[in-house]
Amino acid sequence: MKFKRILLKLSGEALMGNRQYGIDPERLSEYAHDIKTITDQGVEVAIVIGGGNIFRGVAGASNGMDRVQGDHMGMLATVINGLALQGALEDAGIPTRLQTAIKINEVAEPFIRRKAMRHLEKGRVVIFGGGTGNPYFTTDSAAVLRAIEIEADVILKGTRVDGIYNVDPEKDSNAIKFDHITFEDVLQKGLKVMDTTAFTLSQENELPIIVFDMNKKGNLLKVVSGENIGTKVNL
């Protein structure tokens, strides 16, 4: 395996499958089995998941809701998704721990860095819920922050497209895909990989990002094995 410890970033929308909102159990099961293919190879896996399939703080704020209140609701949505993913992973036979940035002791451990790293060393998948625990920060920022804290080798951003393009490939059939691109080029070209805060944090800490299609069975194993899947962003 090319990577020993990874942080997998999944969007909340990824869990919807073909639904309009909520969680698709079939999609959860597919993800769990894909993740098992790499844990079986000894790869240490941490996961940060978004909450957009349930609630988005930014969307709430745009409709007149208090932004801080909305972001707290979004954090709770990520915990719901984390619980759902935890259930699917354990059904697949993978030991897991859910840690949250906001204290919900009855359903999850609080985030403690040393404890998280110990879980990973013992072969448990650690799911980080609750974002960073602060309003105004996205789950992209949470993913980069946690990846740096646990000393991950790479951030794998699982999406529904197979990499980074010069324009949106779902809107323009002539879109050109990048196999590899630098942090500087992403900023200069104005490409949307992560929000600026998250992206800058990743750049400053020299943490590579690989964007790939998580919905294609077997892609996760290929990425972790070092195959040229998706788009790699580094210095």
UniProtKB/TrEMBL annotation:
InterPro entries, sorted: AceGlu_kinase-like_sf, Asp/Glu/Uridylate_kinase, Uridylate_kinase, Uridylate_kinase_bac
GO molecular function: kinase activity
Domain of life: Bacteria
Binding positions for ATP per the UniProt entry: 9-12, 52, 56, 159, 165, 168
Main localization, broad class: cytoplasm
Cytoplasm keyword on record: yes
Membership in a protein family: Belongs to the UMP kinase family.
Name the record gives this protein: Uridylate kinase
Native organism taxonomy: Bacteria, Pseudomonadati, Bacteroidota, Flavobacteriia, Flavobacteriales
